[in-house]
Amino acid sequence: MKKNALLIGYSLIFLGFAFIVVDTSALFHMYYFHYISIIVGVVILLTYYLTTRREKSLLCRIGFHKFEHVGWDDDVPFRLIYRCQRCGYEKKVIRSSGGGGP
């Protein structure tokens, strides 16, 4: 059921935005169905992420990390290393411009 929650949440958000772009409210009386589907999709995703992730900070659980640059990768010269200040999650990012290291 957990993987279905992600699919349902993202599908509802996509469906809401698709209804806004197509402007179905002009054709059918849907009574703000597109806004309701976006809100329900976001609530489903937030509850999924809050219950399944184990970080201490609630912001890190839903994906709002506070990254700081900690260095360069030794293997690839233009890959940066970032670490979250709150939970310690580390990610490596490749610069699009290429370029050198330190």
Describe the structure.
It contains three helices and three strands; from the N terminus they run αααβββ. It is α+β, with helices and mostly antiparallel strands and 102 residues long. A three-stranded antiparallel β-sheet has the order 1-2-3, with no helix packed on it. Helix 1 packs antiparallel against helix 2. Helices cover 44% and strands 17% of the residues. The termini are far apart.
Strands across the major sheet, in which order? 1-2-3
Taking Cα atoms only, what radius of gyration do you get, to the nearest Å?
19 Å
The low-pLDDT segments are: none
Q: Distance between the terminal alpha carbons, to the nearest Å?
A: 46 Å
Structural class: alpha+beta
The ordered H/E elements are: HHHEEE
- Number of H- or I-type helical stretches: 3
**What is the molecular shape?**
elongated
What do the pLDDT scores average to? 84
Strand content: 15-25%
Number of strands: 3
Helix content: 40-55%
The major pleated sheet works out as: 3 strands, antiparallel
What's this model, at a glance?
This protein has 102 residues and is an alpha+beta fold. It has helices at residues 2-22, 33-52, 58-61, and strands spanning 67-72, 79-84, 90-94. It has three helices and three strands; from the N terminus they run H-H-H-E-E-E.
Keywords:
alpha+beta, 3-stranded antiparallel β-sheet, 102 residues, 3 strands, 3 helices, elongated
